[in-house]
Design goal:
The complex is a heterodimer of chains A (about 450) and B (about 375).
Chain A lengths: L5 E7 L6 H11 L5 E6 L10 E5 L3 E2 L10 E2 H10 L8 E5 L6 H10 L1 H6 E11 L3 H7 L1 H9 L2 E5 L6 H14 L4 E4 L18 H4 L4 H4 L7 E7 L2 E7 L24 E9 L4 H15 L3 E5 L10 E5 L5 E7 L3 E7 L6 E5 L2 E3 L3 E4 L10 E9 L4 H15 L3 E9 L5 E8 L2 E9 L6 E9 L3 H10 L3
Parallel strand pairs in A: 1-6, 1-7, 2-3, 2-6, 7-8, 8-9, 13-14
Antiparallel strand pairs in A: 4-5, 10-16, 10-19, 11-15, 11-17, 12-14, 12-16, 17-18, 20-24, 21-22, 21-24, 22-23
Helix pairs in contact in A: 5-6
Chain B lengths: L1 E9 L4 E6 L5 E6 L4 E5 L16 E6 L26 E6 L3 E6 L4 E7 L5 E6 L35 E5 L2 E5 L5 E4 L7 E6 L5 E6 L2 E6 L5 E6 L4 E6 L6 E5 L3 E6 L4 E6 L8 E3 L5 E4 L4 E6 L11 E4 L4 E6 L6 E5 L3 E5 L7 E6 L4 E6 L5 E6 L3 E8 L1
Antiparallel strand pairs in B: 1-31, 2-3, 3-4, 5-6, 6-7, 7-8, 9-10, 10-11, 11-12, 13-14, 14-15, 15-16, 17-18, 18-19, 19-20, 21-22, 22-23, 23-24, 25-26, 26-27, 27-28, 29-30, 30-31
The chains are: A alpha/beta (about 450), B mainly beta (about 375).
């Protein structure tokens, strides 16, 4: 019993994606290590001298219908039997069927006492057939789930699609699962280090989230930074006055949601045009966008600061006085709208000194998405606890994975956490050691409400 | 009370199951890797191992002794055939999907029932009916079957072996032929338990227990249970049917009265159950204590269980067959003997070099056989 838990790697992916190729590759290259393979009943692992057990997937689904309570009975049985040997196994590889739900597989390793102590779920590796996945994504909730659950996504058979298609596919699956590591492969030829000892469920490695992938989506789709003098200026929406003048924000939007005659705008002051100051303004704006909106009719004033203005347009047009008290940089964040936006100073349209388009979360091509939340500062432990508890209880079925590194008021150490459906695991790890205290949290799941999550998260800030 | 090492043996791998011959002369021990060894109970002497099953052996079951009253003809009339006594035949189930029959005296493989692709994980011989009940002491009245095991005409017709492989449940005859194949269970069969009278066998799977009539092969009753079941046991008086569950809990049925009780609060799943001979005490694993329920009278509901503490999760429990001692082992290698009814229940403690996997009292309750994770087999003598 003193033995360290045996690492378990779960391979998922549709039929034909290349799971068996990857499995055979791992087995062939793992000289000297004793691995056991649990293959699905259609499996065809063909490496000599390996311990291969075929399993018919058997779901232990609970009467209450809660999918978060479901575990895989066949795995409990087979893994329990695999423990009954004197020479210790170095690892377990589980190949699921193409239609398998990774949730119960993962839950088996957290809810069953024996599985939890004797095994360690290392990672869910999902093999994606670059050529056929689009078809599967459109037809099959299982395919999306397998992508959503993954710690590692292997984009396989890349030689069968064009580079442009591949880029589009990769960005789509990255949007679905921002926390997974993505590897491209032709014949499942990825280094073993990419699929073994990944630590996907390890709390100490929850902190290794790549922040660049955590923030790909924002509640706004454009921002422009303007140098504005003090005075009474104007925020103009629409085509009247200076329609189609260069310098405005005039691009087309394809995915408009909600009322065409409403546009959400936040104006945040920034210390300078330096990247860190613009990022601070952006992060502040994210929180403001989660706030209640102030409805503003054409002719009524808007102001910089923490107010979410919902501009009420008349046939796509509106003009809003903007009073600037102090000269400086102001960043205007625009929600999704179809109408151009301009700032006029003394009747003249000014150009933004900096502007950026953002990946807006309204591109709902997939119902499986990632919601990344970041905020500087500390969280209130009691509110955080209540929120996470309530969230997992009410939406656990739709939350596939979560990972986070949080700063809790009163604790010198970082709180690292990870979860699968309703199962939540968290602990304090190392101290912040003078680095800025901040919070990073990512949820991956189905039908996630980014605004509600952002708002609730913000409410936990101390 | 003293536990004295009687002898020790060694298998090539984890001891996955043990079985005493009904006369108490032999002990069979199977390793997880496959081979089965048969030891002399008196000395620990052993012949070369039987090959067991390719891929691994899962379980053992020794054919019960056939007493004279049940045998077809008196032994004197059949002396010419020099048949092996029935008590030398045992069955094993393995990952090759087969049930194999072995003659412990000759070391011969005497028959095979191939049940399919699934692992054979459960085997249980039907208890012989009361009138032909297994005798505890050796006596001249115990007869031997008049023919070799391949010819079992003289064995009582009710002698049969219940075998489960995956979802398939089968009754086998003593010559390894199939007596009856039942409709597949809804999920993999995880436990079997014969009613002590031998009239029916309870078959457990995720979702419940089905009670099959051994004579008509019809389902007598179905007991729904909404979770996985790891262990199943009848009280020796046939009153209680008890499951040890994944959720983790113990569920008790009173089949005669259509009543059921649920006992939860365990730390982990309950994989091991044992009733004492008087049907009074039910010992259960599922934590760092042997949780022992008082099943006398109305049963355990509303009664506090007797908790017998270990320092690590309990991994095996076994009451004596005819006496009141409970042997329990935990994952730290400890073995403890308990008398649950006493104020000071702990009777003896012993430390094994590896955690126990199986505990088995000899038919006369004098010897305790212990299989361990390291492959060692110990037989201890229990002295007052």
């Amino acid at each position: 019993m003193s033995d360290a838990p045996i690492p378990v790697t779960v391979l998922t992916g549709f039929l034909g994606a290349g799971k068996t190729t990857l499995l055979n590759r791992i087995l062939t290259e793992q000289h000297g290590r004793k691995l056991a393979v649990i293959e699905n009943e259609f499996g065809e692992v063909g490496v000599d001298n390996q311990l291969v057990v075929s399993s018919e997937e058997e779901l232990f689904a609970m009467n209450n219908g809660c999918i978060c309570c479901s575990v895989r009975g066949d795995l409990i049985r087979i893994l329990g039997r695999l423990l009954k040997r004197t020479d210790r196994l170095d690892g377990i590889l589980i190949e699921t069927t193409g239609l398998a739900d990774p949730g119960p597989v993962a839950q088996t390793f957290f809810t069953d006492d024996e599985m939890r102590t004797r095994f360690r779920l290392d990672a869910i590796v999902t093999v994606v057939d670059a050529k056929h996945i689009l078809l599967h994504l459109d037809r099959s909730p299982e395919a999306k789930k397998q992508i959503g659950f993954a710690d590692v996504l292997i984009l396989n058979k890349t030689d069968l699609v064009s580079p442009a298609e591949l880029d589009a596919l990769e960005s789509r699956i990255r949007r679905m699962n921002t926390a997974a590591k993505v590897h491209r492969a032709r014949n499942a030829d990825v280094p073993l280090s990419a699929v073994l000892e990944v630590g996907g469920f390890s709390l100490s490695r929850a902190a290794e989230l790549d922040p660049k992938f955590l923030q790909p989506q924002y509640p706004f789709e454009w921002a422009g930074a303007y140098m504005l003098p003090a005075g009474n200026h104007k925020l103009i929406i629409g085509h009247h006055d200076h329609a189609h003048e260069p310098g405005g924000h005039d691009h087309e939007h394809h995915h408009h949601q909600g009322n065409a005659n409403e546009l959400d705008v936040v104006i945040m002051p920034a210390k300078s045009l330096e990247e860190k100051d613009l990022a601070a303004a952006r992060d502040a704006a994210v929180l403001v966008f989660a706030d209640w909106e102030n409805r503003v009719k054409s002719g009524e004033a808007v102001a910089p600061g923490g107010t979410l203005h919902r501009l009420l347009l008349e046939a796509g047009d509106g003009s809003y006085p903007l009073k600037i008290g102090q000269r400086g940089v102001y960043v205007v964040f625009e929600g999704c709208g179809e109408d151009p936006l301009h700032i006029q100073v003394a009747g003249e349209t000014v150009r933004p000194s900096w502007q950026q388009d953002f990946e807006h979360n309204h591109s709902h091509e997939d119902d499986v998405t990632s919601v990344g939340l970041t905020a500087p500062g500390d969280l209130d432990p009691r509110r955080l606890n209540e929120w996470i508890g309530r969230l997992l209880q009410t939406q656990g079925a739709d939350i596939y994975r979560m990972k986070g590194v949080l700063s809790v008021k009163g604790s010198p150490n970082r709180l690292v956490c990870q979860g699968v459906h309703m199962l939540f695991d968290g602990k304090y790890d190392r101290p912040w050691n003078g680095e800025p205290r901040s919070n990073t949290l990512v949820f991956i799941g189905k039908n996630l409400d980014r605004t509600a999550l952002t708002e609730a998260f913000k409410a936990c800030l101390a | 009370m003293n536990l004295i090492k009687h002898w020790a043996g060694q298998l090539d791998d984890y001891v996955i199951d043990l079985a005493w011959s009904p006369d108490g002369d032999r002990l069979a021990a199977a390793s997880g890797a496959g081979p089965v060894m048969v030891f002399s109970a008196a000395s620990g002497a052993t012949a070369s191992p039987l090959p067991g099953h390719e891929g691994g052996t899962n379980c053992l079951a020794w054919m019960p002794v056939v007493p004279a009253a049940a045998a077809g003809s008196p032994p004197s009339e059949t002396a010419g055939g020099l048949p092996p006594p029935a008590s030398v035949i045992f069955a094993s189930g393995g990952q090759d999907g087969a049930v194999k029959f072995w003659d412990a005296a000759t070391g011969q493989h005497t028959g095979t029932a191939a049940l399919g692709k699934s692992w054979v994980e459960q085997l249980a011989w039907r208890p012989l009916s009361q009138k032909s009940e297994v005798r505890n002491q050796k006596s001249e009245e115990i007869s031997v079957p008049p023919h070799a095991s391949s010819d079992v005409r003289s064995l009582p017709s009710d002698l049969c072996l219940a075998a489960a492989a995956g979802r398939q449940f089968t009754l086998l005859n003593a010559d390894a032929s199939v007596r009856h194949t039942f409709p597949p269970a809804p999920k993999t069969i995880s436990a079997l338990a014969w009613h002590p009278q031998g009239g029916a066998v309870a078959v457990a799977y995720f979702g419940g227990v089905c009670l099959w009539d051994a004579g008509t092969f019809a389902a007598q009753k179905e007991f729904a249970y909404g979770n996985g079941i790891h262990a199943l046991v009848w009280s020796p008086d046939g009153k209680w049917l008890v499951s040890g569950n994944q959720d983790p809990s113990v569920h008790l049925w009173l089949p005669a009265e259509d009543q059921e009780f649920h006992m939860s609060g365990y730390e982990g799943k309950v994989k091991h159950l044992s009733f004492d001979h008087s049907s009074h005490w039910l010992a259960t694993s599922g934590g760092r204590e042997v949780c022992t329920w008082d099943c006398s009278g109305e049963g355990p509901e509303g009664r506090d269980p007797t908790m017998l503490p270990h320092d690590a999760p309990v991994c095996a429990v076994a009451f004596q067959r005819r006496h009141g001692l409970l042997a329990a082992a935990s994952e730290d290698g400890a073995l403890q003997l308990w008398s649950p009814e006493r104020k000071q229940p702990l009777r003896a403690t012993m430390r094994l070099p590896a955690p126990a996997t199986r505990l088995g009292w000899s038919p006369d309750d004098r010897l305790l056989a212990i299989g361990t994770e390291s492959g060692a087999v110990f037989v201890l003598r229990c002295e007052l």
